[in-house]
Amino acid sequence: MAPNTRQGQAGTPAVAHARMANAIRALAMDAVEQAKSGHPGMPMGMADVATVLFTKFLKYDPADPAWPDRDRFVLSAGHGSMLIYALLYLTGYGAVTIEEIKRFRQLGSKTPGHPENFITPGVETTTGPLGQGLANAVGMAIAERHLAAVFGGAVDHKTYVIASDGDLMEGVSQEAIALAGHLKLNRLIVLFDDNGISIDGALSLADSVDQVKRFEAAGWNAWRIDGHDPQAIASAIANAQNSDRPVLIACKTTIGFGAPSKAGKASSHGSPLGADEIKGAREKLGWTHAPFEIPADILAAWRAAGQRSKAAHADWKKRLASLDAGKRAEFERRMRGDLPLAALAAAVAKVKGALAATPKDIATRAASEFALEALVPAVPEMIGGSADLTGSNNTRTKAMTVLSAADYGGRFIHYGVREHAMAAAMNGMTLHGGVIPYSGTFLVFSDYARPAIRLAALMGERVIHVMTHDSIGLGEDGPTHQPVEHLASLRAIPNLLVFRPADAVETVECWQLALQAKDRPSVIALTRQNVPQLRNRLDGDNVCAAGAYEIAGPDGAAAVSIFATGSEVAIAVEAAKLLAGRGVAARVVSVPCLQLLLAQPDGVRRAIVGETRVKIAVEAGVRQGWDAVIGADGLFVGMTGFGASAPYKELYKNFGITAEAVAEAATKKLG
Ligand SMILES: Cc1ncc(C[n+]2csc(CCOP(=O)(O)OP(=O)(O)O)c2C)c(N)n1
Ligand SMILES: [Mg+2]
After folding, report:
1. What's residue 153's pLDDT?
2. Radius of gyration of the chain measured on its C-alpha atoms
3. Which of 161, 162, 165, 198 to mutate to test the pocket of ligand 1 (most atoms within 8 A of CB)?
4. Residue 315 C-alpha to ligand 2 middle, in angstroms?
5. What is the rounded (10 degree) CA torsion for 210, 216, 219, 222?
6. For 548, left (φ over 0), alpha (ψ -120 to 50), or beta?
7. Per-residue confidence (pLDDT) for residue 13, from 0 to 100
8. CA dihedral 171, 175, 178, 183 (to 10 degrees)
9. Residue 399 burial (C-beta neighbours within 10 Å; 0-12, 13-18, 19+)
10. Distance CA 20, CA 252 (A)
11. Which residues surround ligand 2, an ion (CB under 5 A)?
12. Considering the chain, what percentage of its residues have pLDDT values greater than 70?
């Protein structure tokens, strides 16, 4: 059993460490038993580590869970959610009462199956898909260093993670720890639940990695300790405070610690222990109290621990107050996530004005760079990046300096060839607050980032993914690099905005919409190949805001509506001209964001979609999703399979995505 270390908080009688840790164990077993589902093993195993962290080191204030300079605590092993719920209850977060603990995993409770940052104050990020939390934490640690560089004393905190075997087996963890080591994120401290057990049984069934050596190889300090020895835990965390690099503390623990027959076994991982086992655990742990009952002295000691950082919080308020007024207001604006709206509007107007004066027939990726040259100075919280495709994604403006271990104040991150950790770290950056991350890769590699993009959508986080080379229009690199199903599959993710601008003007409008979407992530799909600038008037309004609009049309009634996105809008405009030559009036509707169109009130949507006899959609991707606009009997000109390697103009001909093909299909349908 865990030793009886005395460690009272100032002003409260000392309560033995073991009794405090056992309060976590008891709540975990009882809540899982009551819910008839859940994961008791991990909270019981990590109770000692968590107790030391939350009573001696972590800087937090239950009265103000969003205090900007709190330490961030990420439970990457989200299945152990009862660990964090127990901690939040015990330390006094108002939202997590004992009643909520009793309602573990029930509809509408503050204690859902896995931690959800948008449900439970004190939960920093949604976790459950293993590996994501660890990579989120890397992003939080990046944001912390960057803001410390920009705002000095207003930001000065650590990021702690509890990660499990599963977290460290996931590939994203390798990308994340390599990035963290490279950036020397020395305020990042990972407590690894080194219990040698996963769902299938002993870890030795599937894994024989030496994690300490692996982290060391990635530029971390890494130590092994007994995760049930409070002194060892405390001295390891104390040492980690002064590290010059990120720290892994591999805590050797026993899963299900205290359970008489299931401790150390996979059977304690993910199911209720059962009445007999719980009775035996109570005896073994010396816990004589009824389910959900925490003795007053233990609760008082925990609540006192929850008050530990009051002085640090007050101190931070003083530090913030000592900043000059402008800087303080800027810090507070950024942490609220409010944009500098006037500066943003002026930057957008400047770009549009320049494009109206001198139209640019350029690739939309180049148009995006042109827009960023104005947006990045106007919105100082934007932090750009690319997964080793900077020159192709056009995400780095001329004035941007690189964010590195030598200069955390830089605003461009070379993420390396690590799309997954890039996307997950961006989630962490946004969750931290104070920055708006945007990044770059090829659209086809959205697959490598998708698990993190999905979580950004679930959490409602503003992260912006620039994804270039968005169709067969990329040409010679061929079908491995040509996205076909990606627009459709990204549009299927709820709450994610997928933009595909047609020209330089739409590109800056889509950027504006993505930045203004405070509670949603965005993908901006951009071409490699040049496209003509179709919008030459100086429009004050952002006409992309409704998701679609008529970009070309006849004076009178139209017989045909052609809907298109991105590079195919120019093809649609050509097709309309061909049709006009044949005496057929056609209108063209540009659809820079299909989801925004479909989300319009019925009347608005119907007005944009129109009621022509023939409806035809043109997109160099699969048809899926377009029937909502053109109907099941509508015509679709696009892709039905994978692309090919050739110059892009030949590919468009080869796959029949041409103005002639569109005009032909429409004429045939008209009969
Ligand atoms: C990406 C992902 N794959 C699979 C799972 C399902 N799952 C939950 S926990 C777990 C592994 C359990 O082992 P470990 O991470 O060591 O946790 P422990 O049992 O030690 O608490 C798995 C496979 C998941 N949550 N996320
Ligand atoms: Mg394990």
Report:
1. 84
2. 28
3. 198
4. 39
5. 110
6. beta
7. 61
8. -150
9. exposed
10. 20
11. 164-165, 195, 197-198
12. 98
CB-CB contact of 404 with 183 (8 Å)? yes
Query: Nearest bound ligand to CA 200?
Result: 1
Which-ligand-closest: CA of 452?
Answer: 1
Structure tokens at 479: 């079908």
State residue 73's pLDDT score. 98
Catalytic: 509?
A: no
Residue 14: per-residue pLDDT: 81
Residue 6's pLDDT is 42
**What secondary structure does DSSP assign to 198-220, as a single string?**
ETTEEGGGT----HHHHHHHTT-
Distance CA 228, CA 231 (A): 9
pLDDT at 179: 98
| Phi–psi pair at 295, nearest 5 degrees | -55, 145
pTM: 0.97
Question: Atom 21 in ligand 1: which residue has the minimum CA distance?
Answer: 42
Kindly tell me the sign of the dihedral angle through the C-alpha atoms of 286, 290, 296, 299: positive
SS3 607: helix
Counting as low any pLDDT under 70, the low residues of the chain are 1-13
440 bridge partner residues: 466
Ligand 1 atom with least separation from CA of 270: 19
pLDDT at residue 12, rounded to an integer: 59
- Ligand 1 lined by 482 (C-beta under 6 Å): no
What's the whole-number average pLDDT of the chain? 97
